[in-house]
């Protein structure tokens, strides 16, 4: 059986595994050695080493590096991830984050639930993003643990909201900042497209191919990107207005008083008057309809680590990119559940 390498040399252990006859059940039993992996041709510590390597590399790269079959690498990594989950346990969450990911083309979704206090994913499942699929999580969690949920952070998808109101009515609802900003970015992009369609000739050249430049945070742009953004905003007054409104809207989450947050939003909405920014007006109506769930962030007890949500989304995108082509949904489930847990 293979063990950890010594330098550049592969190490194999040779030992005898005893088989004994059990007089109680009249069967031949084989002794179990705790240091062996589920695959008896590898030690457990070697399996865990393979699992750690897969945190930063693809299965194929690890297989080539360690001279293993890729299927073997995947199974060893699965054992490593299951052990991480076993050690982490399954305590009842008090603050949950609900999101969905598309696992394949054709609107095939799975729901992801995170424990935002412990900063880990606790559930991956469902057949779609329906209320019925969301209820599967509460069924697995159980009535006792569900009653302890005090806050649910989610996007504005109605099925998630209906499920939490039915199964955990004591929980407050907070709409995720990043999903709200995504709606605002979509509105800005619609303005960009309408301006491109309205203009002609040389006025168009400043807009063409600048979607990423316009939607990105200024600090994330390169020097050339900042120059292109400055030229674009100087050349088009309506886009400049839309961009400034988009940048200032993030101030909403800096308030600790709902009254001040409301005053800021009313002023922001009033500034849309006479600007002819129809997508922004629709966005303002969306915020108005969901105000209670957005303003809930002002309450001190609802201050959750939104940076974790963004980091988790980035990790999931990396996992999906590395696992591209694999049809093993159980593998994807384990990768996502274990991605925020510490190594062992």
TrEMBL record:
Pfam families: DDE_Tnp_ISL3. Transmembrane segments: none annotated. It comes from the Bacteria. Residues 96-336 form the Transposase IS204/IS1001/IS1096/IS1165 DDE domain. PANTHER family: TRANSPOSASE FOR INSERTION SEQUENCE ELEMENT IS1557. This is Transposase. The gene is tpnA.
């Amino acid at each position: 059986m293979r063990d950890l390498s010594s330098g550049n040399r592969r190490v194999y252990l040779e030992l005898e595994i005893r088989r004994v006859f059990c007089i109680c059940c009249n069967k031949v039993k084989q002794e179990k050695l705790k240091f062996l992996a589920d695959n008896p041709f590898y030690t457990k510590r070697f399996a865990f080493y393979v699992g750690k390597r897969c945190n930063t590399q693809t299965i194929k790269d690890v297989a080539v590096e360690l001279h293993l079959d890729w299927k073997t690498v995947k199974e060893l990594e699965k054992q490593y991830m299951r052990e991480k989950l076993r050690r982490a346990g399954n305590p009842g969450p008090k603050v949950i984050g609900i999101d969905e990911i598309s696992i394949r083309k054709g609107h095939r979704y799975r729901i992801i639930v995170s424990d935002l206090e412990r900063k880990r994913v606790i559930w991956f499942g469902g057949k779609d993003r329906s209320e019925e699929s969301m209820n599967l999580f509460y069924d697995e969690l159980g009535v006792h643990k569900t009653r302890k949920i005090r806050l649910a952070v989610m996007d504005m998808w109605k099925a998630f909201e209906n499920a939490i109101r039915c199964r955990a009515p004591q929980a407050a609802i907070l709409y995720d900042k990043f999903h709200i900003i995504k709606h605002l970015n979509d509105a800005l992009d619609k303005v960009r497209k309408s301006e491109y369609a309205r203009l002609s000739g040389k006025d168009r050249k400043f807009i063409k191919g600048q979607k990423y430049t316009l939607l990105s945070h200024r600090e994330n742009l390169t020097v050339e990107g900042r120059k292109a953004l400055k030229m674009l905003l100087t050349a088009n007054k309506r886009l400049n207005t839309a961009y400034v409104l988009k940048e200032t809207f993030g101030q909403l989450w800096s308030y600790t008083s709902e009254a001040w947050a409301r005053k800021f939003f009313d002023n922001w909405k009033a500034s849309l008057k006479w600007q002819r920014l129809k997508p922004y007006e629709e966005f303002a109506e969306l915020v108005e309809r969901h105000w209670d769930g957005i303003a809930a962030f002002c309450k001190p007890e609802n201050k959750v680590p939104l940076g974790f949500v963004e980091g988790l989304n980035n990790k999931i995108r990396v996992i999906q990119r590395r696992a591209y082509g694999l049809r093993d949904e159980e593998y994807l489930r384990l990768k996502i559940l274990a991605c925020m847990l510490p190594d062992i």
